[in-house]
Specification:
Length: 200
């Protein structure tokens, strides 16, 4: 499979998924980017581990992204701009192919729009020292096999959340919810097409 094949399959899968409708609570606009690339014919996703210097979600694993700036002409621009700032990659490498459903964050008051993009495999990230402690790459097929619902305790309160725990990394919360949406609504179609294209 080539990056062009992955792009086409993702576009079709995203176009075919039913979009949710309904009002979200008031909140500040934000966006994240699910950035996929291929390694040895398999799709991988890029995550970031946040530093202890950021305002929210210190030390947690997330997708690159952030709040919309006044200069962003639309919310997709927010996702791309934040990704370039956080990871130091070339904006020309980012090919946005669609989006998932917007999700509210009840604690921090954001409404987050997840976009999906295809990029070439990166060999040298230049992450922001202030925001990013580590860039993490994980295979999508592995994530699809390990996800679970669990209850974790944060600041003394139990929280039921989607959890993905692998290779020493712990993904939960908003990032877990967005990843779960992608795996439930996009990945089955993507994986199914890949299986059909394999010689039998």
């Amino acid at each position: 499979m080539t990056p062009t094949d992955l792009e086409g399959r993702l576009r079709r899968a995203l176009d075919e998924r039913p979009a949710r409708t309904g009002d979200l609570p008031p909140g500040r606009a934000a966006a994240v980017l699910l950035m996929l690339f291929e390694r040895e014919g398999e799709p991988w996703l890029v995550f970031t581990k946040r530093t202890q210097h950021v305002q929210h979600h210190k030390g947690e694993i997330s997708f690159p992204g952030g709040a919309r700036d006044d200069d962003d002409h639309d919310i997709e621009r927010t996702a791309v701009r934040e990704t370039v700032e956080e990871l130091g990659i070339d904006e020309a490498d980012i090919n946005v192919v669609g989006r998932l459903d917007e999700i509210p964050t009840f604690v921090t008051g954001y409404n987050v729009m997840p976009f999906v993009a295809v990029v070439p495999e990166q060999h040298s990230y230049r992450p922001s020292d202030a925001e990013i402690e580590e860039v993490i790459e994980l295979p999508v097929d592995e994530l699809a096999r390990i996800g679970r619902r669990d209850v974790i305790v944060r600041r003394g309160f139990p929280i039921e959340t989607n959890v993905f725990e692998t290779r020493g990394h712990f993904i939960w919360g908003l990032t877990g919810a967005i990843l779960r949406q992608f795996l439930d609504e996009v990945w089955p179609s993507l994986a199914g097409r890949a299986a059909q294209s394999e010689p039998g």
